[in-house]
Amino acid sequence: SNCVVGGFTHHINTSAVCLAGSFIRSDTELLKKMFHVLVLFCLCCLSLIGVFGDSVSVMEGNSVTLNTDNTEIREDEDIRWTFGDENSLLAKIKKKKQIVSTYNSTDERFRDRLKLDDQTGSLTIMNTTTEHTGVYKLLISRAGNASKTFNVSVYARLPVPVIINNSSHCSSSSSNCSLVCSSVLNVEYQDKNTYSCVLNNPISNQTTH
Questions:
Q1: 152-169 in b/e burial notation, b at 16+ Cβ within 10 A?
Q2: Rounded to whole angstroms, how far apart are CA atoms 181 and 159?
Q3: CB 126 within 8 Å of CB 63
Q4: DSSP characters over 72-96
Q5: Burial of 134 (0-12, 13-18, 19+ CB in 10 A)
Q6: How far apart are CA 51 and CA 179, in angstroms?
Q7: What is the DSSP string of 43-74?
Q8: What global pTM score does this model have?
Q9: Nearest CA to 152 among 54, 15, 17, 8?
Q10: Whole-angstrom distance, CA of residue 134 vs CA of residue 139
Q11: Average pLDDT value over all residues in the chain
């Protein structure tokens, strides 16, 4: 009988080799498909990294610096910083023309709060408020454009919680008493008649015992 394996016709007396050749061909096609899926997955991951960017957290009132990761801006590079979905222009550097500008007046939230490093292109937002939470975009123009995204979260400062005795639920004849946390949170019982009230966010906490 005839068997086609690898593009060649072989004259053999059994179908075993044909069957083996079919399996080999099928395994090769499967491996190719798996490789293509793996490459597509990696490209998707790289794409998602570009979309979500770096996450930066800061306490309200503090400064935050968004770094370009450049040690020095090259002569052929232009730096451009924008904010939000509207891509409001915050700052730019045109190295060749020696232009270094911040646009504090284009958005009242950033008035007198922007500082641009003319050596690296990094942008600092000073005296932050929760209104500075959002997406900041960096575009570096040169022979091949490069971009970077920063997701900045500014958290309000937490007050120190106060535990008070809710006298309306306490009496000398009762062994039960109600405690209320000033921030309308539950008071947690610990041990040896100790109670605590905790306020927290992703970067800080305040506790009263």
A1: bbbbeebeebeeeeeeee
A2: 12
A3: yes
A4: S--TT-EEEEEETTTTEEEEEEETT
A5: middle
A6: 47
A7: HHHHHHHHHH-EEEEEETTS-EEE----SS--
A8: 0.64
A9: 54
A10: 17
A11: 77
- Whole-angstrom CA distances from 7 to 3, 4, 27 are 10, 6, 16
CB atoms within 10 A of CB 85: 8
**With the CA atoms of 34, 38, 44 and 49 taken in that order, what torsion angle do they form, in degrees rounded to the nearest 10?**
160
**Amino acid symbol at 71:** T
Separation between Cα atoms, residue 105 and residue 5, nearest integer Å:
73
Query: What is the C-alpha to C-alpha distance for residues 68 and 117, in angstroms, rounded to an integer?
Result: 10
User: 96 is written with which tokens?
Assistant: 């060749």
CA-CA distance, 89 to 191, in Å (whole number)?
55
- Please state the length of the chain: 209
Interstrand relation of 64-66 and 78-83 (parallel, antiparallel or unpaired): unpaired
Q: Give the Cβ contact number of residue 40 at 10 Å.
A: 10
pLDDT tens digits, one per residue of 168-203: 656 566 566 667 777 656 566 666 677 788 888 889
Residue with tokens 């068997």, as numbered in its chain: 3
